[in-house]
Amino acid sequence: MTSSSRPPAAPSGTGYRHELYPYCGRGEFIEGTLGFIQEALDAGEAVVVAVPQDKVSLLRAQITDDAAVRYVDTTLTAHHPGRLIGAWQEWIKEYVSQGRPVRGIGESPWEEVRSPAEAQELRYHEWLLNKAFADSPAWWLLCPYDVAGEKAALEEMTRCHPEIRTGGRSMPSTDYDPQAPFVFVPLTDPCDPYEEFVYAGGDLPALREKIGRCAERHGLGGRRLRELHLAATEVAANSIRHGGGHGVLRTWSENHRLVCEFRDAGYIDNPLTGRSRPDGTQIGGRGLWLAHQLCDLVEIRSAPDTGTTIRLHTELPG
Length: 318
Prior knowledge:
Layout: E1 16-23, H1 25-42, E2 46-51, H2 53-60, E3 69-73, H3 84-97, E4 102-106, H4 116-132, E5 139-146, H5 151-158, E6 163-166, E7 169-172, E8 195-200, H6 204-217, H7 222-242, E9 246-254, E10 257-264, H8 286-294, E11 297-303, E12 307-315
Parallel strand pairs: 1-5, 1-6, 2-3, 2-4, 4-5
Antiparallel strand pairs: 6-7, 8-9, 9-10, 10-12, 11-12
């Protein structure tokens, strides 16, 4: 790489670089990502490539045997946006603990996104990465994004990334929004018909029974219902403990998912709560982390003046 094309230094006070790579077609995907990988290898850095399986195959055909390159298939993981920050922490942990510089390539399977809610949470995840790794050891994440998608969606992605890569060069994103009010959009209205249940201390068994009856009407049972019961108990218990002593449960089906919504008067001031695996010294956040592991999608909206709303989505059978 010539000095004229060398990317700018990482912003002062952070070792993390987060870069969007808009591309069109497989040829541009391969060209941009291979160039990024080769830059890393030339500099003695490790690379974690976390992309859908078809993209893994494309890149393996070009770089197969280098021990410094690790491939991760995100086909399933990326459908759970709330798990991705924890996943990246695990994927790079070995290299960071060795003090070795590491780069990542992360692309979600956007063409397989199952609902508008999932797409919104994936974009929100992209913005949250900047907060999650703001004080981390130095590493660099490139996010390929196919510009064949909607223009509005691409504009939102540019606002989530501090840098953009074009023509093999990195430059600051003039659209990047460190406050990101655009990603914290209001939740859609519940689908009719929905059921409602007000709960307080001592009502957790009744709440689980309420969810169970609704789930069984939609064919949800067995292990998946037990997981939903566990996640719902954690969220409702948080309402009782931190949300004014009570909350409101609403249940309905939408996009072939059972949705359980919990509303209370509490406020979650840290948007990263529940997105990293709790350690032995952590206080709080364990219930939301568990909900992210057990449910197919978790949506959280919280503000001091309106309280907290949490939606748990569980795929229905068939």
